[in-house]
């Protein structure tokens, strides 16, 4: 069994709970309450800050130029299309500047930031990839489970299509292959980060309805 298949199986309960969570079901149906969507986007924008730094660490620690190019292309999408999605949502929802820049963070967001900092500071390519694979693989998974027409509001529809398109799917497949190639040398450390990331993803969605 490949490392990524083993990790996915070891954390199947949290993974399934997140991939089929009430939040993603409501998102795909276009019925997320506005207050819930707003809470999600404000916290996720703080997630994104460290996520960009983690991608930078992965680029710096990668063992080949093709890997750096691939990660850099993904980073370019995050810092353009995905960043402007957040800005347009904040405009539409009337989120003030202070809450875009410096909101009160939940424990879970703080946990995500600590996890990403730890992976980035390790300067280990495979540890960075282990964390990235959870973030992107889980979002690809729930987005691809949605097969109906996109919901009418851009706030819902674009968050789905950002995670359900051929470029994103290829990128996740590539992350999986990179972890299977480089992760076995650091299996315990990669597995621990992977498991923490999946548990945080589940909690991040749970928090929205707490
Ligand atoms: C919490 C979280 N996990 C994964 C993604 C996908 O990048 C995201 N935007 N937010």
Give the cofactors and ligands.
4-amino-5-hydroxymethyl-2-methylpyrimidine
Spans of 5+ residues with little confidence (pLDDT < 50)?
none
Percent helix: over 70%
- What count of helical segments does DSSP give? 11
What is the CATH H-level superfamily? Heme oxygenase-like
CATH T-level topology: Heme Oxygenase, Chain A
The major beta sheet can be summarized as: none
Measured distance between first and last alpha carbons: 37 Å
Strand content: under 5%
Number of domains: 1
CATH arch. level architecture: Up-down Bundle
User: Number of DSSP strands?
Assistant: 0
- Radius of gyration over alpha carbons? 16 Å
CATH class: Mainly Alpha
Explain what this protein looks like in three dimensions.
80% of the residues lie in helices and 0% in strands. With 210 residues, the protein is mostly helical. It has a single domain, classed as Up-down Bundle (Heme Oxygenase, Chain A). Helix 8 crosses helix 11. The radius of gyration is 16 Å and the shape is globular. The chain starts with a helix and ends with a helix. It binds 4-amino-5-hydroxymethyl-2-methylpyrimidine. 4-amino-5-hydroxymethyl-2-methylpyrimidine (HMH) binds next to helix 4, helix 8 and helix 11.
List keywords for this structure.
single chain; 210 residues; mainly alpha; 11 helices; binds 4-amino-5-hydroxymethyl-2-methylpyrimidine; TenA_E; Aminopyrimidine aminohydrolase; thiamine biosynthesis; thiaminase activity
